[in-house]
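Today's session is about reading a structure prediction critically. Students often jump straight to the picture, but the first step is always the sequence itself: look for stretches that repeat, for charged clusters, for runs of hydrophobic residues. Only then move on to the predicted structure, which in these notes is written as discrete structure tokens rather than atom positions. Here is the chain we will use throughout the hour.
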Amino acid sequence: MSITAPLSPSAAADSSGFSRADREALDTTIAELRAGEKTWSATSLTARVALLGRTHAAVAAVAREWVTTAGDIKGLDPQSSLMGEEWISGPYPMLTSLGTLMHSLQALAARKSPLAGTKFGTAPGGRTTVKVLPHNAYEAILLHGMKAEVWMPPGVAASTATSHAGIAAKRPTLTHGIGLVLGAGNITSIAPLDVLYELVAANRVALLKLNPVMAAMEPVYTKALAPLIDAGVVRIVQGGAEAGGYLAHHADIAHVHITGSAATHDVVVFGTGDEGRARKTANEPLLDKPITSELGGVSPIIIVPGDWSPRDLKYQAEHVATMRLHNGGYNCIAGQVVVISSAWKLKRAFLAELRSALTRAPARPAWYPGSASRVAQATESYPDAQKLGEDGCRLLLSSTAANATPMKQTEYFSPVLGVVEIAGSGQVFLDNAVAVVNDEFTGTLGANVLIAPKEIKRLGKGFREAISRLRYGTIAINAWTGLGFLTATAPWGAFPGHTLADIQSGRGVVHNALLISAPERTVVTGPFRPFPRSVAGGEFALFPKPPWFVTARSAAATGEKLVDFAAKPGWLKMPGVFAAAFRA
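Below is the predicted structure for this chain, in token form.
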């Protein structure tokens, strides 16, 4: 997504067609939201729960149209297993987030914390952890073996986390103006989830400006968010870069949230061209209001060497291929660089399986704008890149110490996967890998670690100490960080501490349906092997091959069943979900 600097409100129509009439229409929409803010301020927590409940029903009613439209945007065959991605990353997280937000607001209405009854633990560095997955009995069964915990910053006690949970929803009458959401162009749940966070966690009414790539989703979003739109607290508009710039700098917009690239963020904050670059260098923002952001980056996949079986090698190769190829490779959280030990005896066998997995993954269109140019950029940096897949558009890049910088510092946002080798085994390798990805990779959104259970046991406390040193907003152990995105209770965003002038993967968090105040990171953990091999290998985990794997044959059926379950949970629906999932 690219947004240019703002236009003067008095300017005539420019070459893009953004006219005075367009600006007046946006002004009218903003005026409606100013009135809507008064409505929202007067809406009690109990009434907000009811409103979110009606929105939940509206999302469920439009789920199939949502998925079909998303598939059309991405050029997917309606009968393809890849349609499962649209069920699982579209209406599913929207439904689960709405359900959890309702429970959080119900707790606040009863003068309780959304974290009341939650299990707390500890992590290295004097950190308190909050168990967020599984969060209920349904999740304990549906996602058996999958876990997630939120780590608070060092020194934050469980009592503090509990008392502060709720954020701005703790004072519903104290609203905070109009929040502008500059929507993402890749995953269809991102924009509406960001709207929910503005509305509930920040207590701001929300104006969603769609990314032009997602223009066809407007009728779906309008139906899904109809209760909020009818209440006057949400509006949806279309437009290109000029509309986005005009809105971001509008006097009546109190806050901006953007999902996109660091370059787009810098244009919004500092402006375009030489003047914008000069402002950034001087740290003199053009934007005169708060901005939060989720901006992607280069996500590492750290492979801790161990004694893996041939089936382990194949399964984890498919896991890595999924991290890169899900949604065609157009994910902010896509795994981009495999960090592997040069001393691992199974290195060549794993890389052979990885090439095979990248080749076998279902073919799909390169649907996101600019993909070809980014693939070409990678090819220019790595002319010996292996071209894989039916059309040869998937690249596997190998690097040396002398030429690894481009893949470490360029978010390719396309089906490009790199490999970096570093020295060491065991704890030495893991410590080296943590140092390399912290210091040399761009971004802090997410990091993945794949490690056999025996190695975790052998490393002992050194393993968790290493995890604590990873400076990433979501860390996935034997899982993909995408699971963190899908978990309604988990905060989603960059590691805290970035500045506007060095934004990396952004500032602030979204999702976070338990309304945890100022979290540091989320750590998700999955089984190293799928059921039944998980149990045979000593892991009590009944989860099969995940339906988000690009090689999951029953992904579409499983995704649809999961959405139906999230729309109206019930124990009698579980056998159907399991039956579909175990056909993966």
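Discussion point for the tutorial: Confidence is low (pLDDT under 50) at residues 1-13.
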